[in-house]
């Protein structure tokens, strides 16, 4: 760290400044042209040479120039700040100058965040811009980092109050002046140092918010293991600080998004994975591991996520925090919004009190309940996000075990009605410029984050049964006993002391609100995904019947057929859920046929399926697999369903299967394969694997060839399919790929998947099961390189 500039009054300092100034002005007669000053300062800021700081000017010159340009005296104040912030200073005068500068910038920050940015006639340039241009940002960074400098073995110290002023000014400058946040993000030693300022409660809030803004624009993710004494720092946070710290963690533990849709293709992801294997764990993975190594970290997050509003920080502490925010940011919106809520509740309570003849309590002494609730919602949002990311990380099993042990699920179940899925009140606080139904409002965001957490928690994990209570687990056992099938091991092994308590478990509560959700609700997608994740994995008859008994199938069909849902995302989630609910389940197909009881309804259902196979192909796969199993069973109940069910009869027709197969192959290409549409490739393979079992694979390939010719494009489909299967081998046969998902979803061994793909890719044109046998020589195009750089 370079030493601070010499005091303005010293002769040596004046001499150095004069030399630097003459060099910067290109030898002009000791005085720059006023119109060029800001331009030269900006140039110096970009290049690091020439005019860069207020200390390169004389006080007289700055005062004279300020009269013309209306700089609010900021350059002169910075000149004084340089003079009073040297290493041996006691910083008392320095702090006084900061107190003068701060209000000049905070008024602009207030106008900026309230969208009332208006340049007054008196000034040409904003104060924050002038402050930065004359070197104010760099100077404050140096002042803040003085404690990293040792003089004769002793570390320098600055007061918390002074640090707070520096942070406030820096934040306001970042808010109003473009490029400042990015420049601070490039100072990695400064960013790491900022974490140490969070040890003090007085500077925590300002530091955390500045770090969050900086990390939001930082090109490379910071590594938490580089933060000095991270474990001690986090362990010493109180619950309020830990909740706010989660805002920072959200940026440090999530993999950075490239922001380019093309980079979400499987080709690109595979290439990135190969690159990552050679580079080792990513910064996000390192940061997740660093957090999980902190004793009690996950336990404290679970307590934060599940505490009730009455257990949260007291009124006085919350009001103090609001006051800090208001004083620091001068953001009238914060106070205005909260006071609006307070007044509305006060009027309501006063009216009720007068009606009952009871005295009412002034809002000056009692914090409105809606404020307490919103405060808690904002905290839980961040905490649930961090837990969700950790659940999807490399240490998933470790996190799962801890989350179960610390009773996150039963805790969330107890909060479901009163906080998570509470009814909107007329006075519910929303973000500025938004409404209660906006996806950005805290209430909405909390619900979505909660549903994402349930989805991550249930997905392919035996702990999913913690979403039930003891009575519901007994119901699963009874279903298995009645059907004369073994109980699922995961149900038998579930620790009953960790499940939900109360009359209903979390899954049942979710089903109840799902069925009441309005047709246009944005929650439908996330609700369906969360319930589907409970069914995912090895198909469980008991799990399916548990949900069927609660009317889930009828609700899904109502949404697809009767409400004629238009949202592609919601339709896809409902089709996926319907597929998992019906797969191999005769009772489900009976219920389907009972609901879809007319040709008109069935045609509407088929129209929805055929409108987008990317969305509906998982249902097509599940029905195809179920048909194959039912046809091989000797059972009166199954035979009855096979003879009566419209859907099974429709899928059983070869022309129907060929139509699906042709379209599934035609709508995807190697270069456009994503995690979302790769299921189309696997569904097409399921159809062909079942045909192979019946020794009908050559027939299906021959029919595909005829369909090609009928479209006047011979070879275009089979060449594409050949390339897709080559990619399939590269993608699924990689050693880090988990093949159990394909096995579980189809009940077909992965070895049979591999064998079928190898048979189809056989280069021998004499083989009746090889694709090349059905592509005529002039149209052969199977060796195309589809790798992505």
From TrEMBL:
Protein name in UniProt: Short transient receptor potential channel 4-associated protein isoform X2
Gene encoding the protein: LOC110579391
Polar residues bias (residue ranges): 349-364
InterPro entries (alphabetical): TRPC4AP
Top-level division of the source organism's lineage: Eukaryota
UniProt lineage: Eukaryota, Metazoa, Chordata, Craniata, Vertebrata
Keyword annotations: Receptor
GO BP term, example: ubiquitin-dependent protein catabolic process
Region Disordered, residue ranges: 345-364
Native organism: Neomonachus schauinslandi
Keyword RNA-binding: no
GO molecular function, one term: phosphatase binding
Gene Ontology CC: one annotated term: Cul4A-RING E3 ubiquitin ligase complex
């Amino acid at each position: 760290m370079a030493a601070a500039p010499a005091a303005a009054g010293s002769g040596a300092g004046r001499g150095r400044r004069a030399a630097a100034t003459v060099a910067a002005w290109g030898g002009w007669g000791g005085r720059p042209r006023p119109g060029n000053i800001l331009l030269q300062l900006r140039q110096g800021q970009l290049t690091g040479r020439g005019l860069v700081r207020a200390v390169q000017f004389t006080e007289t010159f700055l005062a004279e120039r300020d009269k013309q340009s209306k700089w609010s005296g900021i350059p002169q104040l910075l000149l004084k700040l340089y003079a009073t912030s040297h290493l041996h200073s006691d910083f008392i005068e320095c702090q006084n100058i900061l107190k003068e500068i701060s209000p000049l910038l905070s008024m602009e920050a207030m106008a900026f965040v309230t969208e009332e940015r208006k340049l007054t006639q008196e000034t040409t340039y904003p104060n924050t811009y002038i402050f930065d241009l004359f070197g104010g940002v760099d100077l404050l960074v140096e002042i803040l980092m003085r404690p990293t400098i040792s003089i004769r073995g002793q570390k320098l110290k600055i007061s918390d109050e002074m640090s707070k002023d520096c942070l406030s000014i820096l934040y306001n400058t970042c808010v109003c002046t473009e490029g400042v946040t990015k420049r601070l993000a490039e100072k990695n030693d400064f960013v790491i140092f900022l974490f140490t300022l969070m040890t003090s409660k007085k500077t925590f809030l300002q530091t955390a918010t500045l770090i969050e803004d900086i990390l939001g624009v930082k090109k490379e993710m910071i590594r938490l293991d580089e933060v000095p004494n991270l474990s001690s720092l986090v362990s010493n946070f109180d619950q309020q600080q830990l909740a706010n710290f989660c805002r920072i963690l959200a940026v440090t533990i999530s993999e950075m998004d490239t922001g380019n849709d093309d980079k979400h293709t499987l080709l690109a992801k595979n290439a990135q994975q190969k690159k990552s294997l050679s580079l080792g764990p990513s910064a996000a993975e390192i940061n997740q591991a660093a957090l999980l190594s902190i004793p009690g970290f996950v336990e404290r997050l679970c307590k934060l996520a599940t505490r009730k509003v009455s257990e949260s920080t007291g009124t006085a502490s919350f009001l103090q925090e609001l006051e800090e925010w208001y004083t620091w940011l001068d953001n009238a919106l914060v106070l205005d919004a909260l006071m609006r809520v307070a007044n509305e509740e006060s009027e309501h309570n006063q009216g009720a009190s007068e009606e009952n003849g009871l005295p009412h309590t002034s809002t000056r002494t009692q914090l409105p309940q809606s404020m307490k609730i919103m405060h808690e919602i904002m905290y839980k949002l961040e905490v649930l996000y961090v837990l969700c990311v950790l659940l999807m990380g490399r240490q998933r099993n470790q996190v799962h075990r801890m989350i179960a042990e610390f009773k996150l699920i039963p805790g969330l179940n107890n909060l479901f009605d009163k906080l998570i899925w509470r009814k909107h009140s007329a006075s519910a606080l929303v973000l500025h410029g938004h409404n209660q139904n906006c996806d950005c409002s805290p209430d909405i965001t909390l619900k979505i984050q909660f549903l994402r957490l349930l989805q991550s928690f249930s997905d392919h994990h035996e702990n999913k049964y913690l979403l039930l209570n003891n009575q519901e687990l007994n119901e699963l056992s009874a279903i298995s006993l009645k059907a004369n099938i073994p109980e699922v091991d995961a149900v038998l092994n579930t620790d009953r002391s960790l499940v939900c308590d109360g009359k209903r478990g979390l899954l049942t509560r979710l089903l109840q609100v799902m069925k009441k959700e309005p047709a246009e609700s944005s929650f439908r997608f996330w609700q369906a995904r969360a319930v589907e994740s409970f069914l995912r994995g090895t198909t469980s008859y008991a799990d399916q019947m548990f949900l069927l008994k609660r009317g889930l199938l009828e609700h899904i069909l109502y949404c697809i057929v009767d409400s004629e849902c238009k949202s592609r995302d919601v339709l896809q989630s409902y089709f996926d859920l319907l597929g998992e609910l019906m797969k191999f389940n005769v009772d489900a197909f009976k219920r389907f046929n009972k609901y879809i009881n007319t040709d008109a309804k069935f045609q509407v259902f088929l129209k929805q399926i055929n409108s987008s196979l990317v969305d509906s192909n998982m249902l097509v796969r599940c029905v195809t697999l179920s048909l194959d199993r039912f046809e091989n069973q000797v059972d009166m109940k199954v035979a009855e369903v096979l003879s009566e069910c419209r859907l099974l009869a429709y899928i059983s027709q070869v022309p129907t299967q060929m139509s699906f197969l042709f379209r599934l192959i035609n709508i995807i290409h190697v270069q456009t394969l994503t995690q979302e549409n790769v299921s189309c490739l696997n569904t097409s393979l399921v159809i062909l694997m079942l045909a192979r079992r019946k020794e009908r694979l050559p027939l299906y390939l021959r029919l595909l060839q005829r369909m090609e010719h009928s479209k006047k494009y011979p070879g275009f489909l089979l060449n594409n399919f050949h390339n897709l299967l080559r990619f399939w081998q590269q993608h699924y046969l990689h050693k880090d790929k988990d093949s159990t998902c394909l096995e579980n979803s189809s009940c077909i061994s992965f070895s049979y998947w591999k064998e079928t793909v190898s048979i189809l890719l056989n280069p021998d044109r004499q083989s009746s099961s090889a694709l090349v046998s059905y592509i005529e020589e002039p149209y052969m195009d199977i060796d195309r390189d589809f790798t992505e750089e």
